[in-house]
């Protein structure tokens, strides 16, 4: 992803349409490592809001942070392979 006035970033956070019902399946089908990211060289995904704000989900929602976000920190794997994995996870 390219920032408008900057370089490239490796962190993608998105909320699928119908996130409450769709996010769990997309996350489960996503063929990458799962867990919080601390700058690994491999791709890792996490349900960000659920991990960071589990005991305060109502507060996070009130701040505009939906509970069914999926965050992906892209690693050094082949980009085409990562896109294939993401596309496969999004197919329902």
Helical run tally = 4
Q: Any idea what the CATH superfamily is called?
A: Aspartate Aminotransferase, domain 1
Number of domains: 1
Shape: globular
* Beta-strand content bin: 5-15%
CATH architecture: Alpha-Beta Complex
Strand order of the largest sheet: 1-4-3-2
User: Roughly how many Å apart are the termini?
Assistant: 24 Å
What is the string of helix and strand elements? EHEEHHEH
What radius of gyration results from the CA coordinates? 14 Å
Helix content: 25-40%
For this structure, the CATH topology is Aspartate Aminotransferase, domain 1
CATH class: Alpha Beta
Structural class: alpha+beta
Query: Main sheet?
Result: 4 strands, mixed
Structural notes for this entry:
The chain is α+β, with helices and mostly antiparallel strands. The chain has 4 helices and 4 strands; from the N terminus they run βαββααβα. It has a 4-stranded mixed beta sheet.
Short account of what is shown:
This protein has 92 residues and is α+β, with helices and mostly antiparallel strands. It contains four helices and four strands, in the order E-H-E-E-H-H-E-H.
Ordered list of secondary-structure elements with their pairings:
Elements: E1 11-14, H1 19-29, E2 33-34, E3 44-46, H2 48-52, H3 57-62, E4 70-73, H4 79-90
Parallel strand pairs: 2-3
Antiparallel strand pairs: 1-4, 3-4
């Amino acid at each position: 992803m390219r920032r408008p006035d900057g370089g490239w970033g490796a962190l993608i956070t998105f909320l699928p349409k119908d996130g409450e019902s769709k996010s769990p399946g997309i996350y489960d089908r996503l063929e990458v490592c799962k867990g919080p990211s601390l700058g690994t060289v491999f791709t890792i995904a996490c349900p960000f809001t659920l991990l960071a704000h589990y005991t305060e989900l109502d507060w996070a929602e009130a701040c505009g942070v939906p509970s069914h976000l999926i965050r992906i920190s892209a690693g050094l794997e082949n980009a085409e392979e990562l896109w294939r994995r993401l596309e496969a996870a999004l197919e329902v």
